Amino acid sequence: MTMTDxxxxxxxxxxxxxxGFGGFQIEILFPGAALGSTRDSGIGxxxxxxxxxxxxxxxxxxxxxxxxxxxxxLRSGRVLHRDTVGDAEEISATxxxxxxxxxxxxxEELVQHDSEVLRGLQIFLRPSQGGLAPKVQxxxxxxxxxxxxWRRVLGPEETAPLVVRSRTWIDDGRFSxxxxxxxxxxxxxxxxxxxxxxGEASVDDVLLQTGEAAPLSGDFAEMVVSEISDLVLLxxxxxxxxxxxxxxxxxxxxxxxx
Length: 258
What we know:
This protein is mostly beta strands. It has one domain (10-236): Jelly Rolls, CATH 2.60.120. The chain is 2% helix and 50% strand. The protein has one helix at residues 31-34; strands at 2-4, 8-10, 17-21, 24-29, 46-54, 59-65, 69-76, 79-83, 88-91, 95-100, 105-111, 118-125, 135-140, 151-155, 162-163, 168-175, 178-180, 191-203, 206-209, 213-216, 223-236. The two termini are 31 Å apart.
């Protein structure tokens, strides 16, 4: 963790946990823990971010989730998704998926044999309460990339492309070199976390490279992109109700998992 002038704290790749087997490799970010918290491994409703690289033909076998809201955010690759609520669907860089796991849910993912190498995020969010009904949502954005503009991917409003069951918002965009203006906060007092999926950006003169992140403070000044960059912006209302005992989104310091 790096702190500069009390404002921007950088989460580097060294702050992540690394896990993998065979053709499946992930970097796991617990944002709260990475920023030095010993009370909550997440930040509000943001529990965990997995940055994955998976080879074609890799099968992640059927496994359970409970009380996680899981965004599958792909930038390349195609995946056949199957689950215990009856879905058998393909997801891709244009067609994203939100699994609202609720009380009990299982799924498996097969990276298609004729696919590119999968590159993407699985973002584990915390629901407003535990034990909700399980469901799965898909949304086809038409294009994989939003060029030079922020795009809403997920939010609690029914008008959002994918609807999360907590006060959480996710926006993304691909930006060319130069200053980048942030979208207006989704609500007053929202806490925001910037994740550089690919590229290089400076926040208050702190350099963030591929796979790095930073919380954006209330006195955030400016962001400058130094090469073509894919950025993901997560926002949370830390004061809203959220359930922090999810199987993967929960607080690693207190959660009990079975």
